Amino acid sequence: PFPVPGSRLLSESFRGSGQPSGPFSEVQIGVRSAAAAMAASTAAGKQRIPKVAKVKNKAPAEVQITAEQLLREAKERELELLPPPPQQKITDEEELNDYKLRKRKTFEDNIRKNRTVISNWIKYAQWEESLKEIQRARSIYERALDVDYRNITLWLKYAEMEMKNRQVNHARNIWDRAITTLPRVNQFWYKYTYMEEMLGNIAGARQVFERWMEWQPEEQAWHSYINFELRYKEVDRARTIYERFVLVHPDVKNWIKYARFEEKHGYFAHARKVYERAVEFFGDEHMDEHLYVAFAKFEENQKEFERVRVIYKYALDRISKQEAQELFKNYTIFEKKFGDRRGIEDIIVSKRRFQYEEEVKANPHNYDAWFDYLRLVESDAEAETVREVYERAIANVPPIQEKRHWKRYIYLWVNYALYEELEAKDPERTRQVYQASLELIPHKKFTFAKMWLLYAQFEIRQKNLPFARRALGTSIGKCPKNKLFKGYIELELQLREFDRCRKLYEKFLEFGPENCTSWIKFAELETILGDIERARAIYELAISQPRLDMPEVLWKSYIDFEIEQEETERTRNLYRRLLQRTQHVKVWISFAQFELSSGKEGSLAKCRQIYEEANKTMRNCEEKEERLMLLESWRSFEDEFGTVSDKERVDKLMPEKVKKRRKVQADDGSDAGWEEYYDYIFPEDAANQPNLKLLAMAKLWKKQQQEKEAAEQDPDKDIDESES
């Protein structure tokens, strides 16, 4: 339904009378009828409008529209684009004044609303400036500075306005106020000095720079001052500024710039002094490779190659490897360009030396790194340098007193002593090294026989036999070891001091009576000296010891000794005594071979008798392989010396090899299955006779079964065979 204009007015004007009259009666009737029709249609429309269905799925849509997208579409479609305001042409002064009044009122209202928005002040002042109202613009800027004097943009716009309008003194005044109020804002100083320089006021600009330098600004400010002086060829003034600059900002790069400044202007002596002062200024604690690289390149440009080499070596000796990569690289390039082969080798050695220094610094107990380092310095260094490195190395004593931790360490002392003796040719220092090492070793817990023996051999080379004997005697008294005894005895043998050897052997055997080798060597010594009875007594004493480490070797040596002396009966008695202690098959075989090799009458019978005795003795032996070994030896004897009947007799004693199975148990006692093994069944064993008979019957039955199966498979063949 749409409202009809004037319907209410018309209905009210004609309200009151029962029947309309006059010229408006038709209009009134028409309006009423139209209104009634509209009301009826409205009522019908209300009845026809269906109810809005409720939204069942309230989940968000898959594609979401953001506020940013709505604004962008509005901008693209220019939905809110307003037409530009109409241009206003001012034709007389009254209109201009009116326009100024309205704009100023707008600006003042904006400022009054928010005084802290500096952009409003700047726009106001720039508008006044555009109207050439400089005094008004100044007033606005001053009012703005009262509000926020720390705003840098405000000062800059104020000063730029004065400079645009060629108000130099006003601009100076503003810059002075700005740098006084905010001295740490470098932009004010840059613009102030630039203005003075553009005006040709060099003295004024220099004065401003000096005021600026009193605040010790950043490096770029100093460079600006130096470049300013250089633009006017004031080299001495620039040098003075550099002197102050490197003290205010004592960085390596600034010293290098100072030196390059001197070099650029041809003052090479001054440049060298600057580099030397920089090296002295930073000292050894704050060394930087870039300073030495720049110094060396300067000297290289001056053709001072020896000075370059000294600079590089001085720096490499004092700067760690990680911080000297560039230094190494430049030094290598320099040597390749101007050095000889020796110089190139020196730098390679120096580089490796730095690597080793870093390794031993990271882990002082890395003795392998010390060995490599020492090998390097020994090949190309002076004696004092080598000794210094050795002293540093041996100072790293293992923290734990266990021999396995000392095994590598002790070789540092050995190499040190050998270097002093063979390379440095200093016997007295060598003796001190040996004595210091022997004092350091904790002999109550462990010792190193090598150190004692090397010390003794050194003293012998120096023809100090008493010192050598004293050292070895001390070692045996403090920490007796087999190796020490053997070394001392070998020394006395070389000197042909046999009485001393006997005494040492006696001490040795008191220390270790179970050592069979010592007994054998002692007896051999007496044999060499021709004292047979003494040697025999030593052997008798040895075999009577309750505990021996290798008794079979001792008995064999004793038997061989008696055989060499051709004492057959003594040898036979020794074998009998040995068989009382052990029934080992090798002893029986050796006994039989001895009887065979004696060469006397009846030796074959005695040998056969020993084999028979051994066979009877070993019937109860559980090791059947040993019994088989005896029978095989007996059979080989009979094959060579026996008759046919003897051979047959031995063959009858040979066992039969049988494959058997047995259960296998794991370590935890559980069954691990079955395994096959070979067993030997001897005919002489009465206990095994039933088993042998059963085994023979089983084999016969199996053979018969195989023949029967073969006959069933080929009956024609059996018929042919029967006919034939």
From TrEMBL:
Family note: Belongs to the crooked-neck family.
Record carries keyword Repeat: yes
Pre-mRNA-splicing factor Syf1/CRNKL1-like C-terminal HAT-repeats domain segment(s): 119-403, 423-576
GO (cellular component) term, any one: U2-type catalytic step 2 spliceosome
Pfam families, alphabetized: HAT_Syf1_CNRKL1_C
Record region (Disordered): 1-25, 703-724
Alphabetized UniProt keyword annotations: Coiled coil, mRNA processing, mRNA splicing, Nucleus, Phosphoprotein, Repeat, Spliceosome
Protein name: Crooked neck-like protein 1
UniProt record, GO biological process: spliceosomal complex assembly
Species of origin: Gulo gulo
